[in-house]
Design brief:
about 20% helix, alpha+beta, about 220 residues, 9-stranded antiparallel beta sheet
Length: about 220
Amino acid sequence: MNHKIIAQTFLGNFSVPLSVVPVFEAEYCKNFFDHISNTGYGFNANEQKLTISCRGDTSTIDNAVVLTPVSIQITLTDISKLSSVLEKIHNKLKTYYNELDFSFSTYSLAIEGESADFAETSNVWLTEKFINKGIPFSELPDAIVDFGTLSFYIKTTDIRDFWVNIQPRVGNPKTVYFSISENRKKSLKEESISSIFKDFPPFLEFVENKVLKSIGL
């Protein structure tokens, strides 16, 4: 089998929540990712949530920004663009606020990916690896067990926290989808935001060499 990373996500929790999420102009939203025809946007007034998303021609994952009063989440297929996306949102918010604290009390990094080329279907492989060996179902000898979604938490000895989700890839019977996130329990000052994308290579290296190998993906 082999795996590939298809998207990476930054989630920042604002040190000082926004009093209100502005409703950005339609033209600004449609041009946000420089791909007007594939970009959509929406604003949920009840949740005070602005979403801008763009699906690439060949990608099954959206490049997306989700802004709420307490957080901003940015998902990108090319994480090198993270700083410019953060800067674009920061500059836009400054046009609505005379004073704006664009720092984060905590933040998280995450990846989405898939492993493919299993000898059997991903459902069979996942069921055998994660269920049958631990839950023999001895009282249900004729039962058919199939894999749905597995979520679990990893805490390493150096106090790093990872949340893992694994499931069969919909529409692709020999592929497993996975997402792995790490909560960084530290603040991120405004002046350091431009270099946040540099956190991703070591995070990705650890996930691929330690977490995914331990799981068997």
